[in-house]
Structure prediction request, 421 residues.
Amino acid sequence: MSILLRKVKIIDSKSPYNGLVKDVLINNDQIVQIDDNIEISARKVIEEDGLCVSPGWFEIHSNFCDPGNEHKEDIDSGSRAAVFGGFTSVALSPETEPVIQSKNDIEYLYKKAESQPINIYPIGASTKDLCGKELNELYDMYQAGAIGFYNGKKAVSNPNIQKLVFLYTRTFEAPVLVFPNENDLSDMGQMNEGEMSTALALKGIPNLSEEITVNRDLYLAEYAESPVHFASISTAGGIELIRKAKAQGAPVTCSVNLYNLVLTDDVLTTYDTRYKVLPPIRAEHDRSALLDGLKDGTIDAISIDHVPQDIELKKCEFENAVFGMRGLETAFGVYCKYLSKEINLEKWVDLICHNPRKILDAPKISLNEGNIAELSLFKQKAKWTLSEEKIKLRSKNNPFAHVELTGKPFGIINKGNFHSA
Prediction:
């Protein structure tokens, strides 16, 4: 299929056309021409005021709940949410029922993804049933296409097991993601530990639970001579440890969840369970430190950490509610409304596209002639409000639903076709 984008602003630090308004011609799944005026007939012509284009956005870890909890989300509805949010690729967490932990599990997800408009990359579970006691057959999963390994939000408490994960994956250079949380310190915690948790009489999750794991796994990765990626970093202390390790040349990267960049634990004064997430929404000094980490390059990527939950598990007492927030649908609008003055659009694309691909060793893309056409289209100034009913979401745990946002995805181009957001 031929697609012609007319007068689109290109946002891509890896492209010589960055910041320029150009016509872009796509044929099947390839960018064939970028020029000022392309005079050619195409099967589909897209021309919209204020339309921008960038390489396709890549979500580094989200959960589509498939297999096992398809009433919350499945590959179809998760892909629909991703397209609506402007994402062309999503790496899927292994935290499903059953856990993604075998060659067959990886092949199952790739098979289900074949007909989807987005690219799906399964992440395999580091340990058996995410229990942290026994390594899975990591190489078999890697051979089947696992893009990396992660124990989800059940951090490996046994340092010897985590050391073995680093040592084993080093032999075939597979990325390892670590969720930094010492379970014994955060056990039964409901929110960030601090003044707000005391005022609300809720058990807190201390910053120390993150920082002690970051410190430990930096040592373990150094011992194993292995890279490590810290997923969902959330504290000022955690950022400072990673900053120091990077200064010493350690092969460490980290990502931050978007909600930790725009929210503080003050939002929990009404006990709204949509804000019950892991890692928890932290205090303002942590949020400020995370922004500093983005600006100085300590933080490599922004993650959405899309975790759908059904209404029964959220609309209940705060202590009984489960962790998790949707976010793929509203990510760009949240960025534009709350963060665009801190992080420019080019930086956003680096943090949500180029850097996640580098971390997970996913296919690299850029807006250049001859390259694969995997593109995100968006309008930075469009105002809109998410209607969960309109896009038929299976779960309703997005706190930014019904909030007027600024900046809206227009659609994606992937696998040779345009898909409207």
The chain has a mean pLDDT of 97. The CA atoms of residues 15 and 216 lie 39 Å apart.
